[in-house]
Amino acid sequence: MSVPHQPAGDTAATAEVTAGAVLSPAVEAPTGPVELPDTDETGADAALEPADEVADVRGSGTDLLVREGDVAGDYLERLLDILDVDGDIDLDVEGDRASVAIVGGELDDLVGSDGAVLEALQELTRLAVAQATGVRSRLMLDIGGHRARRRADLTALAAETAKRVAGSGRSERLAPMNPFERKVVHDVITGVAGVRSESEGEEPSRRVVVLPER
Predict the structure, then answer these.
(1) pTM confidence score
(2) What is each CA distance from 84 to 77, 98, 131, 192, in whole angstroms?
(3) Is 209 buried (19+), middle (13-18) or exposed (0-12) by CB count in 10 A?
(4) Residue 93, class by beta-carbon neighbours within 10 Å (0-12 exposed, 13-18 middle, 19+ buried)?
(5) 142 has which bridge partners?
């Protein structure tokens, strides 16, 4: 579902306005306690670190995910208004999480270097959703197709690394990655015979290690 967005006429999106309106999600607080979103994309990165169990808390599943997408869409529309940025908001449900994408327009500033701004905006959007629903959100945000392109690049990198490790019998350490990127690599390695993967290190220097199967 695509929701077109047109920027507001007032272009005075100052740092002061941005700090007040973007960093403070304008949603109604729940009546009960709120579980804040995890900083890790999956609650953890790999088979070694299974995702937190959230199914029991999430209740009816799809209905809640649709609600998460609606809240996120409203929040991001306000963000685009503040920044006077033109873009469309696409809402979807992918597996066990809501998926929201901002497409069109000049969006590079919302992605940032190596996706740093995108990651921060995703956490703010998850927080807005958690405040509205009272449930921790694992919503995925993409901007300008950055995650889709990164997923394709990482899939190729993981496959090539797995092939080398399987042939040489020597482990290889990849560059530090964020949780989303590590999850992509782990998923690829899981499907390759003769190799396995694990994560090592602490954020933001946490990385994937590809090893020969024991």
Answers:
(1) 0.69
(2) 10, 25, 25, 46
(3) middle
(4) middle
(5) 101
